């Protein structure tokens, strides 16, 4: 196990009616003039928007709004949010929604203190030093943005989707009430589950020896997704299912599984190029790529980990030939995603051969990706091609 410094500073308020802490938490972090960041209207349909407004009004907190954040949030929305904060002297950013609203809010909070264009922060031209305090109310179990230090923003004009990690981006608090996810449609429930599982799988398959505990925790999260995603699809208001998926979403990426291991992922950089070029749903891209990536990286050096994965996660019977278990585990993974209604090929989401080379090049522009089995441009191209 590698050395690490453990810190997950986000306060989590988990469960029904935890929204009651909202105004107190905003005040604790010095907020009185709040920017509310949200998506295309789902929070209005479930009554959460009205509830937040009522709480802020009753507690004399001033409210300004930035709605309409797109899935795969755009840098244009970030610029708009920073302007609203500056023009109105705001001191707190509250995201209400899924990962897209939270990620957008994070870069608004950081861009407020950066005098030039916030895209510079994404491309590494400048570093986030400080942010406005930020809180979130989560409505979709998927990205883990509610408890991590990443913001993923798209610049579709430039065909770029970039994930930025910086400790200052972590929310001060997040309210996780599983009942807010009752209304999440089947497609997003399935895609969110694939995202949680992908974060876990990225952390699970490792070159680091001896991080036994992290691997068993990862298996627990994968089994939780396998157990509860079908229930949430069948019975959207099943509290137990929604609660287990929600907590899995946060724990898969908040460091718990990755501390002590490498943190250089494989499927995510490949998927971000698909979203950057085709604006597809992140979790769907991951559901397509993950089994093909698994097939590609399976070899004598990695087969034992696939064996653990097959036996401990999918309950496969031990076999003298680890390759048999590995292949069965990969098939199970693909079949599970398909059973949730997720696509299994690039053509299923209208991606053809046209941009595979340029996307493979973009995914590897800083060098090989993934430490588990480092992938070159050619490897990424081969994986995309096999996924067609
Ligand atoms: O926009 P609204 O109307 O809110 O509708 C959204 C959107 O259409 C809907 N939705 C959310 N909560 C709902 C709901 N519909 C009904 N009821 C509810 N309670 O779901 C759709 C998708 O929302 P979005 O926020 O885009 O989804 P998600 O949470 O999956 O976020 C995806 C974005 O996060 C990035 C992805 O790349 C993508 O840009 N990621 C962020 C990460 C991070 N910050 O750590 C890591 C991830 O790997 C990922 O890259
Ligand atoms: Zn993801």
Automatic annotation (TrEMBL):
SUPFAM superfamilies per the UniProt record, alphabetical: Dehydroquinate synthase-like
GO terms assigned for molecular function: alcohol dehydrogenase (NADP+) activity; butanol dehydrogenase (NAD+) activity; metal ion binding; methylglyoxal reductase (NADPH) (acetol producing) activity
Oxidoreductase is among the record's keywords: yes
InterPro entries named in the record: ADH_Fe/GldA, ADH_Fe_C, ADH_Fe_CS, BDH-like
The UniProt record lists the keyword Oxidoreductase: yes
Keywords for this protein: Oxidoreductase
Gene3D superfamilies per the UniProt record, alphabetical: 3.40.50.1970, Dehydroquinate synthase-like - alpha domain
Ranges of residues in domain Fe-containing alcohol dehydrogenase-like C-terminal: 189-388
Top-level taxon in the UniProt lineage: Bacteria
Transmembrane segments: none
Domain Alcohol dehydrogenase iron-type/glycerol dehydrogenase GldA, first and last residues per copy: 9-178
Gene Ontology CC terms, in alphabetical order: cytosol
Protein name, UniProt field: NADH-dependent butanol dehydrogenase A
